[in-house]
Amino acid sequence: MNTSARITSRARYAGLDGLRAVAVGLVLAYHLFPAWWLQGGFIGVDVFFVISGFLITSLLLRERARAGRIRLVEFWRRRARRLLPALALVLLVCSSVAWLIGGDVLVRLGAQIVGAATFSYNWVSIAADASYFSAANPELFRNVWSLAIEEQFYVLWPLVLPLALLIPWAWARSAAAVLVAAASAGWMAVVVASGGDLTRAYFGLDTHAFGILLGIALAFALERLLAAPPAWSLRRGWRVSGAVVGVAAIAGLVVVAAIPASDSTATFPGALAAASVLSAIAITAAVWPGSVFGPRLDTQPLRWVGDRSYGLYLWHWPIIVLLLAATSGGGTGAGVPVWMGVFALVLTLVAAEASYRWVEQPIRRLGFRGSLAALSRHLTASPATRWRAIGSVAAAVVVTFGASAAVAAAPEVTSGQAAVEAGLEALHREKVRSPSPTPSPTNTAVEGEAAGSASDRPRPGSMPSPSPTPVTGAEITAVGDSVMLASAPALLERFPGIEVDATVSRSMWAAPGILQQLADAGRLRPYVVVALGTNGPVDAGSLEEAARITGPNRTLVLVNAYAPRDWIPGVNADLAAFVRSHPGTVLADWSGAIASRTDLLAGDHVHPGAEGGRVFADAVAAAVERAEYRRALKQYEVERRAYLRLHHMAGRTFE
To answer: How many helices (H) and strands (E) does the chain have?
Structure first.
């Protein structure tokens, strides 16, 4: 058998469907069951990248060996038949459902559809500064970023391949691909290590091409071995070793997927590169001549899953986002209940099978024009066939209308962002109205002044009583994060003259520096409200430093947090413990106040709307009032003792 015949005979590589099943399984576990132990399951995408690089390059090399050239138009037509039908179905159906649900799930929907349809989603997201790893308000079609990278590869690589083939030796071509892969991984590391945008590093074709390039290198390295296997490659020792190595590679992928991601180069590109290398090893073991590992990896049901892996990947993310939006109005940041993950998995399997059987496979067999011709024939066939065809056309019209309506109704920003922007606008108006805040007196609640002056001491015959005074905004400095920022209109309404220093993404680590700057500028008022528990665990040292800067002559009010984040219970417990151990501090129970009124929060279940902001302001006011009453009570005790002492002295005088 000549080389061309041998290449043509291997129309399907053993093990790749099974490896696709492993890849999509990791991704589904990561998204649908985020509380499980596969917290790095997103590496399944990199497994897909290596498979794509290997398979597409092998197909192109096979065509060149058979026909002497690569027919680009035919290659791209095949890719379009493979990718577009299922993608169009997902976009239309899920957009229509999103329109019925409404709310934050529609945000940026038009840009998402354009990015998905043009396979530029990764760059559209980078331009819009949309984070892949944000779970507060996840985009409906966020998962198609990886399809964009693959399609960009499908467009560019066939054009570059003839240049790569000018390198005369297969090992040199493979080495060149490995070097470029290393450069891509290194570039990702540079972007991440320099503090750059993590999404830019993860979504960029330039920074995340190393998996595809490793697949290309593997295709070059194995081209001759697979075309004309030498006798030594078929020996039993090689087959047994390949099986052992393949199983170890799959186990290694599971281990890497179990490692939680970090925002460092250990994950980007560390874990991703490790997954890519393990995938290349697994592919080698699967496609090796005479391999026993590849056929075992392709056993049912793995092959069934692998055949439908594209549809499974497309459907699972929009389904879980829509389920969460319909039931809780939030995103995956609040967690995905196990029952919902299971339900989403069932829906995903059903949708992927329906798409595979009735949309993807017919169009792959008949092509776009052939499918339209078949539909026309069905419209004039028997009544049963005609009604099925009419139903299909009607369904297409309905989902097209629904998707169009969804794009038209899509808000520009999420409800959480709108709340934050309203807070910013309120603070800007306040700054324009009062451009230069004046330093406040040191405290109406100064403990050192609690005894009062001699003229203020009670006289015999007038028994003192506790007399708390209303606290005005001119006596309050508030420092906080985006939750306080969203509540700024209500704080300004409740406490006219309050000074609010709030911005997004702050944590308690920032408190000492901000408070010290305000103190140095003479702008730290008698009551200091700090709300910085939303964005991460609190640091005991930062709390101690904040209390020191606030000093004994002011009252520190710590606001606890409410958000669907796993660190929030710990934050609230730490704040409560700190207040118990520091008598000069008071706790504002925002969490308790809003827990039963979450309908007043934005769709992210973090930021309060207008009414929610009033609940926040009420929680702060209640804490300030408690602190003022405590101050007044201390003052009362001092005055009462002074009264009794003077009364006793007066009595002795009369004696």
So the answer is: 26, 5
CB 640 within 8 A of CB 464: yes
Q: Which H or E run contains 555?
A: strand 555-559
Residue 379 confidence (pLDDT): 81
Mean pLDDT along residues 88-93? 97
Mean of the per-residue pLDDT values of the chain: 87
Q: Give the Cα separation of 100 and 217 in Å (integer).
A: 47
Distance CA 628, CA 558 (A): 15
For residue 622, the cross-strand partners are: none
Q: Is 470 helix (H, G, I), strand (E, B) or coil?
A: coil
Q: Is the separation of the CB atoms in 34 and 332 below 8 Å?
A: yes
How many Å apart are CA 105 and CA 98, to the nearest integer? 6
Share of the chain above pLDDT 90, in %: 66
**Residues 473, 482: contact at Cβ < 8 Å?**
no
586: β partners: 557
**Range from 65-69, 156-160, 411-415, 651-655 that averages highest in pLDDT:** 156-160
Question: In degrees to the nearest 10, what's the CA dihedral of 311, 312, 316, 319?
Answer: 50
Beta bridge partners of 529: 478, 557
Is there a contact between 264 and 201 (Cβ–Cβ < 8 Å)? no
- Range list of β-strands (E), 398-534: 476-480, 499-502, 527-531
State the Cα–Cα distance between residues 379 and 357, nearest whole angstrom. Answer: 20
**What one-letter code names the amino acid at 264?**
S
**490 within 8 A of 613, measured Cβ to Cβ:** yes
- Give yes or no for a contact between 486 and 607, defined as CB atoms under 8 angstroms apart: yes
Give Rg (Cα) of the chain.
33
Position 540: which residue type?
A: A
- What is the pTM for the complete model shown? 0.84
Strand partners, 501: 479
Separation between Cα atoms, residue 419 and residue 489, nearest integer Å = 10
Cα distances (angstroms) measured from residue 401 to each of 89, 94, 257: 13, 12, 40
Q: What is the largest CA-CA distance in the chain?
A: 132
The CA-based angle 293-295-300, given to 5 degrees, is: 120
CB neighbour list of residue 88: distance below 8 Å, 6 or more residues apart: 117
- Note the CATH architecture for domain 417-644: 3-Layer(aba) Sandwich (3.40)
Query: Domain extents for the chain?
Result: 14-412, 417-644
Greater confidence (429 vs 350) lies with 350
Do residues 525 and 554 touch, judged by C-beta distance below 8 A? yes
